[in-house]
Amino acid sequence: MSARNIKVERENRGWTLEEVAEKVGITKQSISAIENGEVYPSYKTLCKLENLFDRSHKYLFGAATPNNTKEPDGNQAE
């Protein structure tokens, strides 16, 4: 699963790979690899990305929309 929404969020904010990498504390190569689905972030990095973009990991990895981060379980009232 690719983290295409990380790239979308980064570009929407006008941030470079270098800026995100600095804010998260990893290399720009690592951010690029995460965005391209080549590697998965550590739990610590994932939490930092969620906080940085104010988005859930489900959204950042394309499993939800920004406003719907719940997985359907058949018991949720919508």
Q: Quick summary of this structure?
A:
With 78 residues, the chain is an all-alpha fold.
Care to describe what's here?
The chain is an all-alpha fold. It contains five helices and no strands. The chain has helices spanning 4-12, 17-24, 28-35, 43-53, 57-60. α2 crosses α3 (28-35). Mean pLDDT is 84; it is low at 69-78.
Main β-sheet: number of strands, strand sense, barrel status?
Answer: none
List the helices and strands in order: HHHHH
Could you estimate the helical fraction of the residues in percent? 40-55%
Give the quaternary arrangement of the chains.
single chain
Number of helices: 5
Strand content: under 5%
The backbone outline, from C-alpha atoms, is: globular
- Structural class comes to mainly alpha
Number of strands: 0
Rg for CA atoms: 13 Å
Chain-averaged pLDDT? 84
First-to-last CA distance = 27 Å
As residue ranges, the low-confidence spans are 69-78
